[in-house]
Amino acid sequence: MKTISQSFGRAKKRFSLFLARFFKKKRTRIGIYGPPNAGKTTLANRIARDWTGDAVGPVSEIPHETRRARKKENVVISGANGSTITIDIVDTPGVTTKIDYHEFLEYGMEKNEAIIRAREATEGVAEAMHWLREDIDGVVYMLDSTLDPFMQVNIMMIGIIESRKLPVIIVANKIDLVDAAPARIRSAFPQHPVVAISGLEGRNTEELYEKMIENFA
Question: What is the mean pLDDT of the chain?
């Protein structure tokens, strides 16, 4: 027969396991979103290399190089005051309101290849939106600071992110280019923190990391 102490010990162990599962800290899953060629994968690679030494995926000047979401798990980012955050980075396909295979022909693709890329890009947009609805805890929204921030896709996406009440940091990327105007992005979205960076050169990424810890922890 089991003694009272043995039964109590097993019950205590089960309760301890329950508490451990219940209070286990969940990693924060951060989606990198934005229109095509805003620099999402470049930033994802920068974050991953800075903190893990690895990369997330290839980049290309051709739009929609990323046509499936790619994830890098357990990225620990440290702040200047010693605070940290552990995140999973989700590099998502570029979101746009229109995908036309003719766009890819301008980059020298054959028609069949361009049609396939357009179909995969369309599927990628649907996948990115699924992640946003189901599995994302916070958003880094990438914008090319040389372009008009008031494009329809940006207004739509920021609205969706706000409706989900997700914390968001807007990144004004490509400040290394002479026609960059990050002030336009700050004026367009004054309700959200905006960080101006060069993902390619790594400029101001320390400020972005501090903002990520502040907003996503």
Answer: 85
Range of the domain at 92: 25-216
Mean pLDDT score, 200-217: 95
CB 134 within 8 A of CB 90: no
Residue 168's domain is classified under what CATH number? 3.40.50.300
Q: Is residue 126 in a domain?
A: yes
Contacts with 188 (C-beta within 8 Å, 6 or more apart), sequence order: 149, 150, 154
> How far is the C-alpha of 158 from the C-alpha of 192, rounded, in Å?
10
What tokens were used for 20? 């451990």
* Lowest-confidence pick of 15-24, 90-99, 103-112: 15-24
Query: In this structure, is residue 111 part of a structural domain?
Result: yes
| pTM, to two decimals | 0.81
Residue 205: pLDDT band (50, 70, 90) is very high
| Distance from C-alpha of 28 to C-alpha of 106, rounded to nearest angstrom | 39
